[in-house]
Amino acid sequence: MAGGLLTVLLAAWVSAAASEAAMPEEQSWVLPMTASNWTLVMEGEWMLKFYAPWCPSCQQTDSEWETFAKNGEILHISVGKVDVIQEPGLSGRFFVTTLPAFFHAKDGIFRRYRGPGIYEDLQNYILEKKWQSVEPLTGWKSPASLTMSGMAGLFSISGKIWHLHNYFTVTLGIPAWCSYAFFVIATLIFGLLMGLILVVISECFYVPLPRHLSERSEQSRRSEEAHRAEQLQDAEEEKDDSNEEEIKDSLVDDEEEKEDFGDDDEAEEEEEEDSPAAGVAEERSGPQDQGSLRETQKEVETEETEKDAPEQPQCSVDTEMAEDTLRQRKSQHADKGPEV
Prior knowledge:
Layout (H helix, E strand, L loop, with lengths): L1 H21 L8 E2 L12 E7 L4 H5 L1 H9 L1 H4 L2 E6 L4 H6 L7 E6 L2 E5 L5 H9 L18 H26 L4 H30 L5 H98 L5 H26 L1
Helix pairs in contact: 9-10
């Protein structure tokens, strides 16, 4: 009896487990975005979430993001998510540096949403059109630009290298330094191959000139070099000639200045020689001039005395004339004495 009861309970448990396994999982309203379908966000209105499976903050917003996606039809908006581990190219295209990261897209114009990942805030952001006050990502910052396309390629290559490194170290158990050495050698070989390819391409597209044209170009080049050398030599010679002329002119000017100074010195010496002779002549003529001055003074005095004196008898006049003649003789004699 007990064995039959256990059998019934075991059968019921197995049937319940089978029914749960047969039930389909709840459908997610969030659309996973990849490098192949990300261009869907260029049309209509979208909200994107960048996350990583190991990110705790991303896991906390999963339920809110799912609720927001369920109401997407009411809000007339599509909701998507991007796994940066699986899609490193998209993280590079949007230049994602922090997680989680949210973006709003409206007809190909992208804006960064920096609010919390809570359903109410996300809903108000769409209903109240708060995204209009946010500066859009234009120019080279736009995910659709050529610059960001190149950034996506770099991130994709780095992601593949990271996956390959994990495969070497985790799956195959190779030491990490061996993996690094492999990548260094691969980088060198890749660089050499790229250089070889560029050389081959340049040789294919480079058209060599005919021999006679190359000879002519060589001759013209040599003639130009010779002409330039002659011009330089002529310029140096002209410069030397001009310097010599300047030196000669300066020497001539110095000689002329010296001659002028010599003439001035000679004129000063002649003036100095003339000045003593003039002094001697003045000294000699001095006594004579003094005697003549004395005579004139005496004559003037006699004339005045004659005018002032009253009329006297004729005898007094004769005596005075005699005295005057005597005085004149004495004065002349006195004047002649020093000259002798």
